[in-house]
Structure formats: C-alpha cells, structure tokens
Amino acid sequence: MATKRISIHGEWSSRWAFVLAATGSAVGLGNIWKFPYITGENGGGAFVLVYLMCIAIIGIPIMMAEIMLGRRGRQSPINTMHTLAIEAGHNPHWMWLGWLGVVAGFLILSYYSVIAGWALAYVFRTASGTFTNVTPDGVGSIFSTFLADPESLMFWHTLFMVMTMLVVARGVNGGLEKAVKFLMPALFVILLVLLGFAMSSGEFNQGLSFLFNPDFSKINANGVLIAMGHAFFTLSLGMGAIMVYGSYLPENASIARTTFMIAAADTTVALIAGMVIFPIVFANNLEPGSGPGLIFQTLPLAFGHMPGGLFFGTLFFILLTFAAWSSSISLIEPAVAWLVENHNMDRMKASVVMGISCWLFGLLTVFSFNIWSDYAPLSMFERFREKTLFDLLDYLTANIMLPLGGLLIAVFSVWLMSGEASRDELGMGEGPSYLLWRFLVRYITPVAVIIVFLRAIEVI
Predict the structure, then answer these.
(1) For 213-220, which contacts have Cβ atoms below 8 Å and span 24 or more sequence positions?
(2) Domain boundaries, the chain
(3) Topology of domain 15-456, per CATH?
(4) pLDDT given for residue 107 in this prediction
(5) pLDDT for 292
C-alpha cells in the first residue's frame, strides 16, 4: 500500500461538499441546453432509455476510475498521472494524459464562457421584456443581431470569465466549496419552480409521454451513438475536472457511493430540464426537435407569449447561467492547480494568469460568429469545409480529446494500475461490486468509447 498523500490545495469539508462540487461540474449547458434538443431530435423516450443505460455502463465506471486516480495522486492531473505511473512501475510519460485533460478543459472553457455569456445576456433581455409578444422572425433576428456584434459578445464573455475566476481564486474551501453550496441548491430550487410552472401549462402529460414513453421506431443507430457520446460527456469525464476534484476528496468517503450520487443528480437535472421544456414547447405548438436553437430562439418565443413568461423566462436563464457557472469553475481548476504546484504561484496569481489566457483564447469563438464567420481554416479538407474556429474547437475537444482521455483513464486504471492499488483506493474489497467495475472498465467501457470516438471522427 502506498503512503497516503495530502493535497497542498486543501480538501472538501465533507463527502457532501464533493458531491455538490462534482455535480456542479457535471451539470451545465449540456444538461439544460443540449440534452433537451438532442432528445427532441432523436424521438424522445427511446433515446432517454438508451441514454440512461449508457450512463450506467459508460459514465459511472469511468467516473469512478477518474475519481480514484485523483484521490490516489492528490495533485493536479498532470502531476497525479506522473506520480501514479511511477508508483505502478510504468513510464512517467503517462503525465501526458493529465496534460490532455488540462488542455481540453482550458479549450472548452474558452468557448464555454462565450456561450454562457449568451445565457447571462438573456437573463437581462428576458427580464426587460425584449421577447414579449415578439414574432418568430423577431426572436430569430434578435439572436442573429446579438451574435453579429463582437463587442457585445466580448462584454458578456468577459463578465462570465471574471465571475469564474473570482470563485477559483479563493481556493477549495473559500471559493469552490462555498460557490457550489450556494449554486447547486439554488439550481435545484429554480428547476423545481419551473417544473411547477410547466405542470400548469396544460401540456405536461404530453411532455411526460414524449420524454418517458419509448417508441423504438423513432431511434436509429446514430441516435444510440449520440446517447453514448452524451452520457460520457455530460459527466465532465476526460477533461481533468473530476480528477482534480477527486484529489480533494476526504479519505473516508466512498468513491462508489459518491459517484452514484453524482450520476443520479446529474441525470435528474437533465430529465427535469426536459420535463420543464417539452410541456412549454407543446403548449405553444413549437417543434421539440428544433435543434440547438431550442433554448435561445424557440423558448424565448414561448416565454414572450405566455402568462408569467417574463418572470419564468428570466428564472430559466438564471438557471442556465448558474449551471454554466458551476461547470466553468471546474474546467479551469486543473490548470490553476498545476500552476500553483509547479510554478510557485499563489492561487490569485495563477487564477489571473489562466483567466486572462482563457479569455484571450475565447476571442477566437467570439469572432467566429461575426467578423470571422466565413473563415474556415481547414477548408481544404471536405469534412471541415464549413467549420469555423469555434466549430473546430468544439470538434477537437468533444470528438477527439475527451473520448481519448476517457479511454486512457480506463486503460491506466485497470490494465496498468495494480488491482491492489485500485482495491485500496476504492475500498470495495474483492467483492462482486469491485469485480463488476473492473470488468466494465477493462472490457466494456473502452469498446463503447472507441465506438463513440470512431463514429465522431466519421470512420464508422
């Protein structure tokens, strides 16, 4: 048994603090923005059922592995993988797995902050009555005009990035933990208020039927692959966030139990978001499969024409902002932790350095929607002919870096790390639960991730 390490960054005060933090990392735009529209595009209930199965088979086992590695190493993902590789008697170049996660988190936050800025802007736009009695073309025009204005996007991107770094700079207990102790309960309260509103819309039963009545004729192989991919990405796996949060996990906390709680909370938020959105969509005769515009174009139209829409629409975009904020602090934490460990910086300086760097990189996304909207750097390749800088960043992180990171986490945790070390950290003994986890991570999960990866890069 290895000597137990101590994180120089501090520790969560309790298992519940970690559950809230990791749930905050997992719950984000993917749950409230992406999950409803991909469910709408892929037929509803059948897609949800496949998604839940994928959470169990892919998401939970890899999350357990990533938390285990984080708590074992008690450092930033880069230094954790370097330390654990040496401990297991393997090449220290496994630290590049840590680098993969840190860089992925940095790149994702650079454009995530821009999209989150949209949600923040829409809080004020909705509250001011911008969408009241506006026509469908009017809502679309408002959104298009907003995206075409680089100064406006830069302002909201800047504001959201400042909000993120103010939390991260205050450290594990004073910043991250205090933030999630406020954000996550507030997020659930707002969700439940909106759920009550949706129940009074008159089409709640139709929304429930669409979400939970599986019609397998409406889902195809591509829909299954989308469910597999989203189950993996929604839990913030492969980007260093869960690993670094795991490094702050108290020694006596059960990794298995906390992982199940996080996955359950994350999935519950996604399902309630669907229960909120689809009744509103059906009550206003809108299209549930309207794609990414569901949140920023379709719903503002609905809120603008319904009783109480001003209040509940504002509340919805506050919810979206809170969800994005709780995720964003986890995306930058691995890089900040590495700067503190390796470059003798205090957290404030490390946060400022990473915040400014990420903000500058985010300008690539800002300009992708306006002054560089016609610029496709890889247009010489057919597959990327129309992809802007934002599209390429999204493609690189979601389709290549995160699946690759998840796959390597699975490989290291069961093929290279000793069974004694994983049993020691997981605290599950040699029982059936440990054997099931080891079987899934050793054989089933890697195959599923490889299939998602190959499908994402259009090999299959």
Answers:
(1) 213/44, 213/45, 214/44, 214/45, 214/46, 214/48, 214/49, 215/43, 215/44, 215/45, 215/46, 216/46, 218/42, 218/43, 218/44, 218/46, 218/47, 219/42, 219/43, 219/46, 219/47, 219/50
(2) 15-456
(3) Hydantoin permease (1.10.4160)
(4) 96
(5) 64
